[in-house]
Fold this sequence. Notes:
Number of domains: 2
Number of helices: 14
Number of strands: 0
Shape: rod-shaped
Amino acid sequence: MHKRSSIKENLYKNACKKNIQSLSIELDLLQHLCEAEGILFEKSEEQESLCETARKQNVRKGLTNISDETYHFFLNLDKAIRSLEASQNIRLYGQKFFSFIQDELFSIKTLRQSFGYLFPPTAEKDILDKLLKEILSKYGLMSLSQLRRNYLEEMKIMKTEAHRKQIKIKKSRTGKDVLDFKVIKCDQTQEKIASHKRLQSEILKDDSYLSNKFTKAALDLLSKANYISVKGRQSKKELGVAVSNAIMASEKMS
């Protein structure tokens, strides 16, 4: 389509006659890759692929019917690209990954030979090389775009799995490691020393631990356990500070 558009745009420009001639030759050669739909349904050995093409055709019949030989060339091209789109190559070549893919594909002798067999023997090698590079570039960009979509989808799945794992770990810790007044009440160690030491540890890490993790009612009970006389009405934050100071100053809980 690009070559046809270029020819139409520059057809009556004298300065572009040579370019139009080259484009016309390339366009004629590319026609050898195509085949009439009726002939394909009669002679093709790839009937399953023809049915898939027919299924995806829209009203305008926008998909191009290609010969079996062209189909096999693109199958081999796709396999070659897949073998090169490895994670180690992405890490190794980085921003030059696309250029690496193009160079490697063009250097595959069997791929160039199979491409040459699609055209008449009289076709010039330079023109065929130019067409092959164009096809490799366009097909490579399409494949790279699909690779990126697959990568983003895999990353999304990995992030989701990691997030779920973190939630699972957090939930498993919630039932065992959370220190609240119920845990302190059930503490069977002498003078609840285990709970007392843990409270001291948590307060050292976060001096607002009690205010954040305990209700005011629980703080009132903790104040009594540590012999604190609460004078007047205090806010939860003030009570938390007072109880924290008392716990850090004492060696055990009453």
